[in-house]
Amino acid sequence: MWIWTGKNVKIGILGGTFNPIHSGHLRVAEEIGEYLGLEKVYLIPSGVPPHKGQHPLADFTHRMEMARLASKISPMLDVWDIEGKRPGLSYSIETLRLFHSYFGSNLELFFIIGTDAFIEIKTWKEYQNLFSYSSFVVINRPGHNKEEFSKFLDSLNVGFIWNSERKCFCHPSGNILLKKVTTLMDISATRIREMVAMKKSIRFLVPEVVREYIEKVGLYLINESTQ
Question: What pairing do the DSSP bridges indicate for beta strands 161-163 and 168-170?
Fold first, then answer.
C-alpha cells in the first residue's frame, strides 16, 4: 500500500465486488485519476456487499489478491483491504469515514461510481451523509437524460446546486458531483465468470496477471460459492 507523507492529497476511491476485477474497472480508474489530477485511486474490494446477494462471491482473499495484482500495472492505482477487515456488511459511509480518519483534514476525496449504481444510492446506509465526506464522480453513459438526472439529484434533498462556471453540482459541504464519460469497455464480470466456467478464453478482458491467477487458483470453474 502507498505510504502517505502527510501533505494535502487528492484521492479517488473505486469500490466493487471485483469478482473478478477487469480491464473496464481499471480504465475508469486510470482516466478519472488523470482527469482530476489525483495522487492515487484506491481499488476497494467489498467485503460483504449489502446490495449484491444474487451472485456468489469468490472469497475476499482471492478478490483482494486479484485487485492487488491489477493495481501494480499503473502507478496511479493502489488497493486497500479496508472492507475485508470489517465484520459484517460493507457500507460505503463507513469506508469514507475510515479514509478521513486515516488522512485527516488534508484529504480531498473523490468517490467514483457508475450511473446505474448511483441511481440506487437512496438504498445505501446514511446516503444523505455520503456527500459530506466525499465528492462524487458519476461515470455517465451516452444517452442518459440530463434533466432526469437533475431531478434525481433534487429528490436526494441534500442541497446540490448546478454551477455553470465549474460545470458540476456543488454541495453545501464544498464537495462536488460531476459527470464524466470514460472510454466505453463493455466488459461484464458476470460474463467473465461464465466464460471461465465454459473454459473459454478471457485474455484481454482482464489483466494478464489476473487471468493467470484465476487459472492458477481455479476460480469460477464449477462451484464459485465455495471459492
Answer: antiparallel
The CATH number of the domain holding residue 68 is 3.40.50.620
Strand 107-114 and strand 77-79: the pairing is: unpaired
Identify the bridge partners of residue 107 per DSSP, sorted by sequence position: 9
Please write the tens of the pLDDT for every residue from 134-188. 999 999 876 677 788 889 999 999 999 999 998 999 999 999 999 998 887 889 9
Question: Residue 211: inside a domain, yes or no?
Answer: no
Q: Which domain holds residue 138?
A: 9-185
The crossing angle, in degrees rounded to 10, of helices 60-71 and 208-217 is: 150
pLDDT digits (tens, 9 = 90+) for 6-56: 568 999 999 999 999 999 999 999 999 999 999 999 999 998 777 655 567
Kindly write down the DSSP assignment for every residue of 22-37, as one continuous string. -HHHHHHHHHHHHHHT
Residue position matching grid coordinates 446546486: 161
The rounded distance, in Å, linking the Cα atoms of 166 and 115 is 20
Residue 193 lies in a domain: no
Is the model's pLDDT at 226 over the cut of 70?
Answer: no
Residue 144 lies inside a defined structural domain of this protein = yes
Residue 63 falls inside a structural domain: yes
CA distances for 101 relative to 93, 96, 106, 195, angstroms: 12, 9, 11, 41
Tell me the C-alpha distance between 192 and 219, whole Å.
11
Asked if pLDDT for residue 223 goes beyond 90, the answer is no
Q: What is the pTM of this model?
A: 0.91
The count of domains in the chain is 1
